[in-house]
Structures are given as C-alpha cells and as structure tokens.
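User: Hey, my collaborator sent me this sequence without any context and asked if I could get a structure. I don't really work with proteins. Can you help?
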Amino acid sequence: MDNIRLFLFAALAFVVMLMWQQWQLDYGPQPEISSEIKDTSAAEQVADNDLPNIVDLPDQADGLPVDTNSQLETTVARVPGRLIKVETDVVIALIDSKGGVIRSLKLKKYPISLDQPEQGLELIHSDPESIHIIQSGLRNRSNTAPTHHSVYQAAKSKYVLQDGEDRLIVPFLWEQDGIRVIKTYEFRRGDYLIDVKHRVENNTSQDWQGSQYRQIQRTRPLSESRILITYTGAVYYNEEDKYEKVDFDDMEDSQLKLNFQGGWIAMLQHYFLSAWIPPQDGTNLAYSIANTSRQPATYTIGLRSANVLVSPGNSTEFTSQLFIGPKLVKRLEEITPGLELTVDYGVLTFLSKPLYWLLSLYHSYVGNWGLAIILLTLTIKAVFYKLSETSYRSMAKMRKVGPRLKTLKERYGSDKKRMNQAMMELYKTEKINPMGGCLPILVQIPVFIALYWALLETVDLRQAPFIFWIKDLSVKDPFYVLPVIMGISMLIQQKLNPTPPDPIQAKVMMALPFVFTFFFAFFPSGLVLYWVINNILSIAQQWVITKRIEAGGT
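Assistant: No problem. I've predicted the 3D structure and written it out in structure-token form, which is a compact way to encode the shape of the chain:
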C-alpha cells in the first residue's frame, strides 16, 4: 500500500505541475501586440549595438587584413524609411526600405483568435514594448556595404501575388561610390519559405570584399511565465552540435561565437518560428547579441557568411532562405535537416513523434482532430490491453479479499508487523501481487506525458474544432463539460477499485476525482478528450474483469 500511495502522490504532483503551467499560459499577462507598425524608432534605438562585430568575420578570400584590435564605428543616419506592403495568399508583410527589415508579417491562415477570423496572427512585429523583426545585410571593413540600417530604394510601395503567379519578387536597390547592391525577397505561393538574395556589383577600380549576415531580433515575452509551457528563445543547429538552445539569459551571460558549416538559426515561440537557413555548403559564424542598454532589452541570434572577394567589374550573389510561419513538421522536414526539431517534444521525443505521426494519419482519414484523438486513444488502449488487464485483475482480486483484510486489521489492531505478515500470507494464498495493479499504470505514464507534449506542440490542434461547443482543441473546454465527465468517470472507477484499508489513503482516493476535475478544467480540451475516452474504455474493461473475478473466474 505504501508503494501505491507513493505512486498516487507522484501522479498527483505531476498533474498539479502541468495544470499550473496551463493556468499560467491561459491567465498570465499576455503580450499586447499591435497589428500596425506604430513606431519604428523603438527598434532603431539599438542601432549601434545590433551589428555583428567586423573582426569576427570568417575568412575565405585572400588579402583581407587582420586587425583584431580594430573597432568599426557605425554611424546610423536617422533617415526614416518607408514601409513596403507585400501580400501573398498566406502572408501580409511590411518591409522597411531602411535596411530591407521585415517589421511585420501576418499569417493569413492563422487568425489571432476564433473571434477575429479575418485578423491574421502577427508573428513579426515592431512595437515599443514588443519587438520581433528580421534583419539582414552586408558587412566589410571599408564600410562600403549596406547594413540593415542603410536606406534602400524601392520601385513600388505595394507588391501583390496575382492569380496564376507562383512567385513574387520584391527588389530593393542601394548604391554608393560605385558599389551597387540589389536585395531581393522572393515569396512563394502557399509557402512560408522566402528566398533572400544580396547581389553585389563592383563598378569601382578596387576589390570589394565582404560578407552577408542574417539575424533575428526580439524582446522577451511580456509574460515570462509562458516559458514554463513552451520554449521561447533562440536555437541553432549544425551537424556536430545538432539542436542547441540559446535562451535570453544565456545571451546576457556570454556572447555566442561559433563557426560551423551549413546549419541554421531560429527564434521559437509556441506553435511558430522564424528561421534563417544559409547555403549548406558554406561556413558561417553563429553569434548572439544581448542589448540590455535599452528597455525592453533586445536579443539577437545571427549567422554570418564567409568573406567573398569581388574584383572590379565583376559581381557576386549572397543567398539565404528565410522561414516565417507555423511549426508544420512535414514542411520543416522538407526544408533542411533538423528544422523539424523546433517542434520540441522534450525528453520523450521518441514517443511523442510516433504518436503525432499516428494522430496525423488518423486525421487524414477522418478529417477531424477530435475524432483522430479518439482513434489514437483506442489504439493506445489496444496496445496496453494486456497490461491493463493484469492491473484490473489484480485490483479485482484485492477487492474480493477486502473483507478478509478488514478482519485482519481488526484482529491485529496496531501490531503492524504481524498484520503485514498476515497480509502477505493472504496474498500468497490467493495468488495476488500487491504491485500488480500499480506497475502497469506506471508503464503507461510516459505515454500520457508524451501525448501531452505532442498535443501541446502541434500547431494542427490550434483552433481545431471537434463538436458542438468545442471550437478549439488546443484550449480549455469553455463550458467545462469534458472535465466534469472526466471527474464522473474517475468516481465510477473508484467504485470498481478495492477500498484502501488505510482511512487516510481512502480519503485521498475519494478526493482525487474532484482535484483532477478542477485542474483538468484548464487543460487543453484535446488532452481531456483523450483522458475521458481512456477512462470510459478502462471502466468497461475493468467492470468485465471485476464481474468475472467475483463470479469465481480468473
């Protein structure tokens, strides 16, 4: 019984932890993000501190002087740019002609809420208190390269992907002292992957040498407690280190400086990400910049290419890819190795991934994520049928000998040693394993946790309807119907289980359905749906086994 008590408290502690996290997500302070660009000066306050250091340039070209003591003095002209609107079938973006910075990007197919179906989620934004922007540019020691603070020329103020077109090219032009740079964004129909190019034309009589940098800059979430639920921060990936997180505290503690081939960098948040993917055959310097001199502080993760030498009269082109969108596993797998790891299932990834795969498979047939969860529950129940049968058979036998255990307790009173010996003899005679009802349940707990993270991480469940009142499986049941049904199902299970001989334990057991109902009221309804269906199936299986044992069967 001590083992069962320990298990119950461990399970309860786990559920309390998950519930507290979900409470924080739902009711903690939420970021107030404007749908318009109100003031770009907030982002410009960091102008002198958000460029990668010139001396950290990874060299590939010959003849580049090495001066580790030099400091590049960057003078940022306070020249305002103008916002260029770009619209495709899936995004609406605002690109600043100053630096070609993406200051806003809305996802048309992912509304802010069900109450605002026409208002796309603004993943990239630039407000005084909340910044998440995309920057890129060129660097060299002679300062003849446009950074994300340089002003470009734009031919049009609006670009729209027309019917019948698959791609939309948005060019920006910068010229200075014979150096001509054409920066282009190439958007694709039905996709969140963007090609970004810097074409450098050297019309001078001297060599031009420089590199391309790409970076993502953002502030901390206004609600720090949201980090308890899912990771918000930077990550990088390469073949040697694989997937590594660099959170905001890490950036403040030390600056990231790491050379590797290929790879990628990203900023993550719940359901969505922004990522730079460089050519995989080139060497890059990954770096981070924490600018705590402004309020709120900004944090930057970036990648810088190797130097390229352009002789007079020649040209070169720097290329990269930019992904800004939802964490769709299949699409991320297609783009570059490791990008699907941004769908972070934690330590139980080896369980969560096949569960999500199976869930997606069922959805492809039934077209409803709620029905897919029910089918997945049936599958999990079938896999663990024998284990559950062992557990329920053990509990049914314990229930059957309950009156005899009560007699032993009355006979031996406070003599716990003799009572335990008598109990062990009874268990041996009746062929009952006291742990038989506990271990099968313990085995299933990792599966439940893995499913929790699979349902929490998958963007497919965001605003996915089930039936009637359940319009979004990723949030709590608005009318608490599922949690109440779950609580009732737990009470029914209590009636089928043996009554614990310890009065305190009996009271704890009776309180659990009410405690679980309260906490599960704030769980995503998709997870509560799994628990309800699992309980109903368990009740049916346990009832059949209990009746069989009581009738003298095995």
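In plain terms: The CA atoms of residues 373 and 530 lie 6 Å apart. You can pass these tokens on to your collaborator as they are.
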